[in-house]
Amino acid sequence: MGRISLENSTVYILASERSGTNLLQRLISNHSRFGGPKSSFIINAFFYQLRYYSKLNERILFEDVLNFCNQALADWKMDADYQDFVKEGGSGFLDIVNYLYKKKMQEIGKVRLISKELNTHHYMGELLLKDPGAKFIHLVRDPREQVASQLKSPQKLRDAYTAINHWIRIQSEIINKQILHKDKVLTIRYEDIVTDTKKTIDSIFAFLNEIPEPACYQNQTHDSEKMKSTEIWDALSRPLGNRFDKHKEILHEEEIRLIEHLAAEEMRIFNYTPYTTGKWKNSIGFRIRNKYYKRQVIKRLNFKGSDVFNSRREFARNIFEQRKKEFLKTL
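and the corresponding structure tokens:
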């Protein structure tokens, strides 16, 4: 596929789950040039499975990605033809993702994509080769709030220890990429978007070489970008709010200490202040108590429409199991 023009280059939000990406994407998408289609989390789903497609026909990968986008939750309802993709010079996973997003952008009548695909940071170098004008916004959120929010969502992470280690790993990977592509990445905090929206949005649009429009300061979505939602998507994409101490209602004091202990360096880098001693030890006693904490998390999960989320996960699992079997036959 041909290179994207500099003035229409894509903007990628780099973040871990439950960091405020929906709010940031919504604010930027309120601009007349920017569009943020409902994320299908293609990269997150396929990133660790691509090895199973290495010996298969690319059409299979194209059709699997398309079918994944059309599943419940994202529910793109998109028709796309592999031959058209090839005619446009497309080749490989990233081109498939860009091609499908391009078609979705045409539907909503916008020209500059603001993407919140998870795990995009793994492809920063390759994305910049295809789109030299691409920009990346590294969005961070207080790890205590992020972990608490994560434990309330229908994800795989079910305890604070696993969740904070996942958060630390993502931040470390993004920071390392930022060192390589310093001028292409802007780091902002979710809390700053909420407490000083105008200043933060102005800094973002200056970084993007665009002029913000009044709607960009308002947490509303243009009619052209509204899509059919499921109850679970509404729950996941609901703005995170302006209270920054909700974690105290969800996490035990020991869980807060372990977060402040394990993420001490990252909290310092991103200017988050600890308020416990931060002393924590991964003892047998903690591991026993952690099982209790984990059971409490599972009890709290009561998302309407979680069957939609689970059915999409099952769909992906079945696809990848089939592709794995086909791949192993080629060895």
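(Above: one complete record from the training split.) DSSP finds 16 helices and five strands in the chain.
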